[in-house]
From TrEMBL:
Domain of life: Bacteria
Cross-referenced PANTHER family: GNAT FAMILY N-ACETYLTRANSFERASE, LD18367P
Protein name: N-acetyltransferase domain-containing protein
Organism in which the protein naturally occurs: Shewanella litoralis
Residues in N-acetyltransferase domain copies: 14-170
Amino acid sequence: MTQYSNISSHSIDAIIRPLTAQDDAAIAAVIREVSAEYGLTPDKGFSVADKTLDFLSEVYQAQGSQYWVIEYQGKVVGGAGVAALAGNIGVCELQKMYFSRAIRGQGMAKKLTQQCIEFAKKQQYQSMYLETTAVLVEALALYEKLGFNHCQHLGETGHDACEIAMIMDL
């Protein structure tokens, strides 16, 4: 499913498009950069520690999964994905949503999250789950504004350092 979206938000013109294998190194670099900026180190069970980080395009080939990147000025500067939450029928997880400083505060996170939600609905998921940490203040505020509610942790995501779990009915 190839879907490109040109998005203009404030002074930023960017493209949201599906992740390709050629983007793997760039999005892994964004995730590592943002994680380091917020002190989310690999030794603590955050996304940056995932063994699949350098080949996300392979991970999101699974049925009911998709990862999108944001391209700005010819460079991958962010992304987010959706995949089934193992052991939870009808529940997907919003995953690996990270944005370089260059595009933060421009409404891109909201646009990309809404695209992820629409994809999840089309895949007939009933709920979208996510895990985050209190250090990501901006992300937490966005999730709450979009209608995610705090909940108990579901499943084994491998991100045991993410102390906040949230869910939204779709």
